[in-house]
Fold this sequence. Notes:
This protein is mostly helical.
Amino acid sequence: MDDNGDKKLDKYEFGKGFREFGCELTKEEVAELFTIFDRNGSGFVDFEDMLCTLRQPMRQCRKNLVLMAFQKFDKDNTGKITISDLRGVYTAKHHPKFISGKMTEDEVFGEFLQTFTQSTKPVKEVKWEEFFNYYHGISCSIDLDVYFDVMMRQAWKL
């Protein structure tokens, strides 16, 4: 659908994509769907918008586990995890790049935080929504709640 390769869809590409897949929609229907898919109101639908709109809602028991993990890090209850929040909860001392001297502890923490975002730039914090979206994506690939539960509890020592 992304004809110009800019990794996002404008209204024209969005509507054209539906037509190419055999969905004949009116301009009004395309506009309504575009508004739903353009979750951040940017005027474009990017890959994250597409995924977030198409995946099914996460079950409450899974949301609770993700929230528990987030709260384990968000010590000051700001709704975001920062590098300072990671100190004392996450250690960089065993990270290969820290051991080799290629990265400082803060750089290791920044790399860790980067995991949860779509940003290509270095990050110093992760908001709840980013953390949740990361685990929402993972949740979609795990069929049973019990497996998701075990994964979260073991990964975050909950």
